[in-house]
Each structure stands twice: as structure tokens, then as C-alpha cells.
Specification:
Layout lengths: L1 E3 L4 E5 L14 E6 L5 E5 L5 E4 L5 E5 L7 E9 L2 E8 L4 E5 L5 E5 L18 E4 L5 E4 L6 E5 L5 E6 L11 E7 L6 E6 L4 E5 L5 E5 L10 E3 L2 E6 L3 E5 L5 E5 L27 E6 L5 E5 L5 E7 L2
Keywords: Glycoprotein, Repeat, Signal
Protein name: NHL repeat-containing protein
Pfam families: NHL
């Protein structure tokens, strides 16, 4: 079975992740691939990180401490190696870990009493890391701010706040650094406003991307392209100028079903997505898609054109 267009086509492998007997996914939220082409699935079950060979063979698991709160999942590559940056929506924190799960840094609620108190909580949904190691946290389920820290977790600045004006955000669900231009930029999936908002690395708003949006969740940059899950209900690929290349697996009816995203298993089809939440690409350009579904769903798309 294949999906895509004449110029961008993929073969669908719907039962790619081979979990061992007795193990199951929770909601599958994030997915990443390391330099050795191992695939990491971040889900709300326990252990929360499941590691697979690129052929779907199960390798190991870790991350029991993130059970229930597993959400944002970013693998950063730099001269120090590869590290995960994780958000936990149950414990209101961000963690930096090794590939084996050792926690190296934790960041909790910012000390900003004008933004956070007992009623106004910090619920981070994604993390990005700049070329200099600075950390950017999207408080997507909390107060709709972006918080900027240095590489050691020292607070620098914040911006945003709930609203729809330029510079304001409503559920900044995902955040990534765009390195395709002359200078780095921050891309924020301003999901509640159904748009992507682009900022300087210091938080100054630059422009909006609004066409062809269906609740963007997060981003994955591959070569000159940007790939992101539209929660309602497809994968979108844009070129280096943020122009559309393809929509994959679009199912306009999925989110209209009663009980969405947790629908009867008989509803789901291998060539249609329901609630994609995370995506990554391996070195061959094959895609791995994690969906926000109660029992988890991971699909591999093998690139054919």
C-alpha cells in the first residue's frame, strides 16, 4: 500500500513496531531516530521510551519515571554527542537525558510569579536547542509562553502569552530551530491559532505561516524540508521556502467521529492517519509517525520517490 503524490510517494508499513509479548504502548507522543538509525518511541506507558531497530525489531526500554506524562521528545546532536530533551506534562518539568535515559538536567516551573501560581500552571509540551546550546521550552498546555534558558538551565527570558496577535500564542505545542536560512530561527507550532509562528532566537516575531494548517503539533527538519504532524489528521511536508510539497494520509473525517482520538480499532486504516502527534525521518528519508491514540500507533513510511 502506498500514499503520497506522483512526486512524493511512500510505502506504508502499518505494523512496524514489534513489541515483546506482555508489553504495550500508551499514547504514542514523540518519536526520534539517532545517528545509528535506532528509533525511539516516547509514550505514556511504562517504561516510556521504547527503542527499536529500523526494521521494527524491539531492542530495549527505559524511562519509567515519565509514565503518564510523556509528551515532547527531541533528540539534539552537537559536539558533545546526542541527548534527549523531554517534557513531562504530569510532573511539569523538562529533562535532558543520555540515549540510555540518565538524567543530566531538570528544569521545572520558571520563577515568574506574574505568570505562574497555584492556579496558573506550567505544563511544557516541547523543547528546542539552539546552535549555542540554549534551551527553548514551549509551555503549550500551561500559560502559552516560550521560555529561554542557557545550556546549563539558567533562565534568560520569556515571551508570548495567550492571544492571537503577532507575538502571542495559544497552545504553542511544538518548537524547533530552523537552520535552513542565513541565520537560525525559532519555529513555533501555535496550534490553538492554527498557524506556525516564526521568531528570532531572542523571541522577536518575524512572520506567520498560515496556509494549509490543520493544527500543527511539532516539527522535524530533514535536509531542506520541514515535516510536521497536523493533528487533524495528516502529515504535511513543506520545502525550504515553506511551500507545500505533499500531504500524507489525510483523513478529514477522523476528528469528526464520536470519541476521537480514541476510536474503535476497526476505524483505523493503514493509509490514513487519525491523530498524528510526532514524526521523524531516517537517513534514507523514510518517515516514522507516532499517533495520539490510547493504545498507541506507529507507522513507517518507506520513501519510494
Amino acid at each position: 500500500m502506498r500514499i503520497g503524490t506522483e512526486t512524493r510517494e511512500y510505502e506504508v508499513i502499518s505494523s512496524w513496531a514489534c513489541l515483546p509479548e506482555g508489553m504495550s504502548f500508551g499514547y504514542t507522543h514523540g518519536i526520534e531516530v539517532d545517528s545509528n538509525q535506532r528509533i525511539y518511541v516516547f509514550h505514556t506507558g511504562s517504561p516510556s521510551v521504547a527503542v527499536f531497530h529500523e526494521n521494527g525489531e524491539y531492542m530495549t526500554s527505559w524511562g519509567e519515571e515519565f509514565q503518564g506524562g510523556a509528551h515532547g521528545f527531541y533528540l539534539h546532536h552537537d559536539e558533545e554527542g546526542e541527548h534527549f530533551y523531554i517534557t513531562d506534562t504530569e510532573r511539569n518539568l523538562v529533562a535532558k537525558t543520555t540515549l540510555e535515559g540518565e538524567v543530566l538536567l531538570r528544569i521545572g516551573t520558571p520563577d515568574l510569579p506574574e505568570i505562574y501560581d497555584e492556579q496558573r500552571t506550567f505544563i511544557p509540551t516541547d523543547v528546542a536547542v539552539g546552535p549555542n546550546g540554549d534551551i527553548y521550552i514551549a509551555d503549550g498546555y500551561g500559560q502559552s509562553y516560550v521560555h529561554h534558558y542557557d545550556k546549563d538551565g539558567k533562565y534568560i527570558r520569556s515571551w508570548g502569552g495567550t492571544g492571537s496577535e503577532m507575538g502571542q500564542l495559544t497552545c504553542p505545542h511544538g518548537i524547533s530551530v530552523n537552520l535552513r536560512g542565513e541565520e537560525p530561527e525559532l519555529y513555533v507550532a501555535d496550534r490553538g491559532n492554527n498557524r506556525i509562528q516564526v521568531f528570532t532566537m531572542a523571541g522577536e516575531p518575524k512572520r506567520l505561516i498560515t496556509a494549509e494548517m490543520k493544527m500543527p503539533c511539532s516539527f522535524y527538519f530533514f535536509e531542506d524540508e520541514i515535516i510536521f504532524p497536523d493533528l487533524l489528521s495528516r502529515i504535511t511536508i513543506l520545502d525550504r521556502n515553506d511551500e507545500l510539497i505533499a500531504h500524507l494520509g489525510d483523513d478529514p473525517e477522523a476528528s469528526k467521529q464520536q470519541g476521537w482520538p480514541n476510536l474503535p480499532k476497526s476505524y483505523y486504516r493503514p493509509d490514513r492517519f487519525s491523530s498524528p502527534h510526532g514524526v521523524c525521518a531516517d537517513r534514507e528519508g523514510n518517515l516514522y509517525v507516532a499517533e495520539w491514540i490510547e493504545f498507541g500507533r506507529v507507522t513507517k513510511l518507506v520513501r519510494k520517490s
